[in-house]
Write a structure and sequence with these properties.
heterotrimer, A alpha/beta (437), B mainly alpha (301), C mainly alpha (298), B: 301 residues, mainly alpha, MetI-like fold, two-stranded antiparallel sheet, 3% strand, C: 298 residues, 2 domains, 11 helices, 72% helix, flat
């Protein structure tokens, strides 16, 4: 018995060695593209069957509610399939991304995973970890139902690698009007950052200790910073930063200085992640919080009324620009149930799925043919802006930069949070661009 | 001839496993650390992420974040080792002559050792929460306010100063000081009462007995404790991961930075170079110790 | 790896001496007790927070009042923690038990050879083993992860817990070998081995009928040791498993890093995840100490 164990362990070691010599992971024949054309076109035939494991970082609050709404839609349309929720908790997916990376490397991919549309998915595409889903997109209606500039962001070398589920706006300030009243500050949006900073000074003078709420998680700081950057640079110059723009420009430097001033009005701890920071506004411990529009669900959950309990504006200086991010779903290579995954993607991309999901999550549909009148006022206004405003892509949420670049920017921002050294922050941003562009 | 090598065959499976999984994998890590890496960017360029060869090491050593991580490791290790030795010795001294309820105190001091760093880190993350002031403070800072000592509040491990990692050593000391105590206690108990009595008969004061009779005999234990705690400190990963999160500039040490390099920065060569240097640092401390103990053991026989 | 590389902990019962005490001694004794109680209180402080928080209902919990005693007891946190951790708890139990048993058996055979049945070069090999005890696992993690990926893709049943068992057994060889070697070196008289050899008993017979029957104290030590370190491991779990196959440290970390933390569930989870090792220390700690005493104190 003992020796058998011994031999077993030894064998495992040898097996491992030989397997290691083999190197790269094997291509799974079941993952071949085009094998599932029959099921992609609105296939309401009950689905491919089997388990469909879907990886998201939607484990909490409104995100969880949205996922559940989508799951209900999926189970209604594809009763043969079993939905497996692989949600992982983690701030805007920063933990989840590292974990997903390990799972993909482990050759243990989920059947579908959530990824921010844009540069973030590029890493997976270059690493040959995703299957194209052109057939799914075409089956759903292609450019007839999805905005063309959004699909362009998802297209690499003529192929589309993910199905967008929803769009969020990043540049939104959430405001507690009762706190504004404490300092006699007007409820209207300030015209620019300087006016906003002046309001914060007034509030501080009136005894509001932390006019601005921000989380200690580095991505929440980056989220605030990207709004400031957009305000200082303007849309075109901001968007150029990710192609050939100059990170050494004076505009970037003045954004850093404005950001530093904003932080001097902010809390230094007490809020680990965005929900606690938003709670500070809800509870009247802070007047403002810059957060993506998923925060609207946090207010709804706490039974707060728009207009009386809370207000929202585009971050001062960014009015007229929609700083966007979008979630989308993929089909990883080597997924165990690719047909089931396509059933899922069809649900995600359908008008009914997008309506159910976005109503619950507090985002707006990526499809343009979903009627706005079913949505609450905030989303209606966001859908309106999405149609008319200029576009800028979010840094903090994977639309503008690849993961490695975003990791470098996060390092710089998290360093600045601690040492407040503007020169080294600027240098860090320049270097990050240099080594990742 | 066969007889002479019999033992070898019984140990052979373990030898193979250790050779492959310790030494073989270390070699492979080193090979990875020398590999070049390029990446296609979103803008369509080929970026050289790691140049390959020893340039990978040069690049790593020049990286400001890595330098900070090394500094953090130094601060952490000094406070961690110093703290455990100090409290371990203090508690052993308090307990060594036998007191009422000794078993209770020993268990209380020792039990944190049974808890995983992930579990204790979850608690300490909250205790060491950096918020300051009445409407932000939680954890220890809140306790200080409650006791009317608000000036004791600290930002702990997220303090901007260079010695923030001293705060990170607090939970580590909490967890392992009891272990060092147990080592010293065993050392004290291993010294026969006759030696103390003999010294007392000679008229030595209690302090002189400790100074000249007991402490010298404890020095081998102190050395092992030093090595064990020191190398644990260099490997610290779980605790920081649980308290500061997996990507936090201020609280980086090489072991946690390696995770970031591997998965966030997607740069395996640099992560491997980092791991190799970490191994070298540990080896510099441990190998002389192994040689030393090997020698004293042989001499003693 | 909290504890893999810790050496034995011998703690003997105190020697009780009866002498008449002087006032100075009484003063010292009082001071000593005050210090001991103060330190114990400091050590137990985190446990206090964990306990009171775990019994608060999530609705009652306010971070600013976390130090207060709960107004009324609620078991919601405990139930939620149990629900979240139970599957991982079962996996950890299987993993830590198997790892402890297998590495103890290997350690016993190795220890026997290195202590009593040496071969040319055995002390060099032994020192090589010992170094394996100290290495930072980061230095093997990248290739180890690749090997395990490859192994799991050709042998799916190996993924998750079996992978962790293999890893803990391999990296547990050094410490187990050390403990058994030290134990056999002192607890098994060389004369007996020699006598058996003269009687014509071979190596395996000697091991089986002479050495193994008196190995129980060392087995207690390595079993407890390996169980605790496998249970408490997070690094290997993080690199080699996922949320569906990982051990309880993995599940707890996920529970704790939720964006909207449910503190009562989190703190109850800390206790649930730590309970097995705590129980081992509380109930078996004595055997652990006794086993060490009988063997490795020189």
């Amino acid at each position: 018995m003992r020796f058998k164990t011994l031999v077993a362990v030894g064998m495992a070691g040898l097996l491992a060695l030989t397997a290691c010599g083999g190197g790269e992971t094997t291509d799974d024949a079941t993952g071949a593209p085009g094998s599932g054309q029959g099921t992609t076109s609105e296939g309401q035939d009950g689905g491919a069957g089997g388990e469909v494991g879907v990886f998201t970082w939607w484990a909490e609050g409104s995100e969880k509610a949205g996922l559940e709404a989508l799951q209900a839609e999926f189970e209604k349309n594809y009763p043969n399939d079993t939905f497996i929720n692989l949600a992982v908790a983690g701030g805007a997916g920063s933990n989840a991304k590292a974990k997903l990376e390990a799972d993909l490397q482990n050759n243990n991919p989920p059947d579908s995973f959530q990824g921010h549309a844009g540069a973030e998915l590029y890493d997976y595409i270059v690493a040959d970890q995703l299957e194209p889903v052109n057939d799914v997109i075409d089956g759903l209606g292609g450019t007839d139902v999805f905005p063309e500039n959004l699909l362009n962001l998802l297209t690499v070398d003529g192929n589309i690698y993910s199905v967008p589920s929803n769009v969020h706006r990043s540049n939104v300030v959430w405001v507690n009007p009762a706190v504004l009243d404490e300092g006699g500050v007007s409820h209207d949006a300030p015209a620019d950052l300087d006016a906003w900073l002046a309001d914060m000074e007034t509030l501080k003078g009136a005894g509001v200790e932390t006019p601005l709420a921000v989380g200690t998680a580095p991505w929440t700081q980056l989220h605030l910073f990207e709004s400031v950057l957009l305000a200082e640079l303007g849309t075109d110059e901001y968007n150029a930063l990710f192609t050939d723009g100059d990170w050494g420009a004076d505009g970037v430097r003045s954004a850093i200085d404005k950001y530093a001033q904003l932080l001097s009005y902010a809390n230094t701890g007490g809020a680990d992640d965005w929900p606690q920071a938003t709670d500070m506004v809800i509870d009247g411990n802070a007047a403002y919080n810059v957060m993506g529009d998923w925060a609207v669900a946090q207010f709804a959950q706490r039974d707060k009324q728009e207009g009386t309990d809370y207000l929202y504006w585009p971050t001062p200086g960014t009015d007229g620009t929609f700083l966007f991010l979008a979630d989308s779903f993929t089909l990883p290579k080597g997924a165990k149930n690719p047909e089931g995954a396509k059933d899922w993607l069809n649900t995600v991309g359908s008008a009914e799925g997008q309506l159910a999901f976005n109503l619950a999550k507090g985002s707006i549909p990526a499809r343009t043919d979903v009627a706005p009148d079913e949505f609450p006022p905030y989303q209606q206004s966001a859908m309106e802006s999405f149609k008319n405003d200029a576009f800028a892509s979010s840094i903090a949420h994977g639309a503008a930069v690849q993961m490695a670049w975003s990791a470098d920017i996060s390092t710089a921002i998290s360093k600045f949070w601690t040492d407040k050294d503007a020169d080294s922050f600027h240098e860090g941003l320049k270097q990050a661009a240099e080594s990742n562009r | 001839m066969w007889k002479k090598w019999q033992g070898f065959w019984l140990v052979l499976p373990s030898i193979v496993l250790v050779l492959v999984f310790v030494y073989g994998l270390i070699a492979q890590t080193f090979a990875t650390s020398m590999a070049p890496l390029t990446r296609r960017t979103f803008a369509g360029n080929e970026q050289v992420v790691s140049p390959g060869g020893f340039d990978n090491y040069a690049q790593l050593l020049a990286d400001e974040r890595y330098q900070r991580a090394l500094w953090n490791l130094l601060v952490l290790t000094i406070v961690f080792v110093g703290g455990t030795m100090l409290f371990g010795m203090l508690w052993a001294l308090l307990l060594e002559k036998g007191v009422t309820a000794e078993g209770f105190f020993r268990s209380v001091y020792l039990f944190p050792m049974a808890v995983s760093f992930i579990a204790s880190g979850t608690v300490w993350k909250w205790l060491l929460s950096p918020g300051i002031g009445d409407h932000e403070a939680i954890g220890l800072n809140r306790l200080f306010i409650m006791f009317g000592l608000p000036e004791l509040q600290s930002r702990w491990w997220s303090d901007p100063g260079p010695f923030n990692m001293a705060a990170m050593a607090m939970p580590a000391v909490w967890q392992l000081a009891g272990y060092v105590m147990a080592l010293f206690l065993a050392g004290f108990r291993g010294i026969s009462e006759d030696q103390r009595e003999a010294a007392r008969v000679d008229g030595a004061s209690e302090w002189r007995i400790y100074r000249h009779v007991l402490f010298p005999q404890l020095s081998p234990i102190a050395l092992s404790a030093l090595i064990i705690i020191g190398h644990m400190s260099m490997k610290t990963f779980d605790l920081i991961y649980a308290i500061a999160g997996q990507n936090n500039y201020v609280a980086d040490v090489p072991a946690t930075l390696m995770w970031v390099q591997l998965f966030s920065q997607r740069n395996a060569p640099v992560a491997a170079a980092n791991a190799t240097i970490l191994l070298l640092i540990v080896a510099l401390v441990v190998i002389p110790y192994l040689i030393y103990t090997n020698r004293t053991e042989k001499g003693g026989r | 790896m909290t504890t893999t590389t810790m050496a034995p902990i011998p703690v003997a019962p105190p020697t009780v001496r009866k002498r008449r005490s002087t006032p100075a001694e009484t003063g010292w004794r009082t001071l000593r007790m005050v210090l001991l109680v103060t330190f114990a209180a400091l050590i137990l402080m985190p446990i206090y927070v964990v306990l009171v928080t775990s019994f608060k209902s999530p609705a009652d919990f306010r971070v600013t009042e976390a130090w207060n005693i709960p107004d009324r007891l609620s078991f919601t946190g405990w139930r939620a923690a149990w629900d979240a951790l139970a599957p991982a708890l079962a996996r950890s139990m299987v993993m830590a038990t198997a790892a402890a048993v297998i590495s103890s058996i290997l350690g016993s055979m190795n220890g026997f050879v290195f202590a009593k049945w040496r071969f040319p070069g055995s002390s060099v090999i032994f020192t090589m083993f010992l170094f394996g005890m100290f290495i930072p696992y980061q230095a093997v993690m990248i290739p180890l992860q690749q090997i395990m990926i490859a192994m799991n893709s050709s042998a799916l049943f190996m993924s998750g817990i079996p992978t962790l068992i293999v890893v803990h057994v391999i990296y547990g060889i050094p410490i187990c070998t050390l403990i058994f070697r030290n134990y056999y070196a002192t607890a098994v008289p060389t004369d007996i081995i020699e006598a058996a050899r003269v009687d014509g008993a071979g190596m395996l017979r000697t091991y089986w009928s002479i050495v193994l029957p008196i190995s129980a104290p060392a087995f207690v030590v390595t079993l407890i040791w390996q169980f605790t370190s496998a249970w408490n491991d997070f690094l290997f779990a993080l690199f080699l498993t996922d949320r569906n196959t990982g051990p309880v440290t993995f599940a707890l970390q996920e529970l704790a890093s939720a964006q909207n933390p449910d503190y009562s569930r989190m703190m109850a989870g800390v206790l649930v995840a730590s309970l097995p090792t705590l129980l081992v220390y509380i109930f078996l700690g004595r055997y652990f100490v006794r086993g060490l005493m009988s063997g490795s104190v020189k």
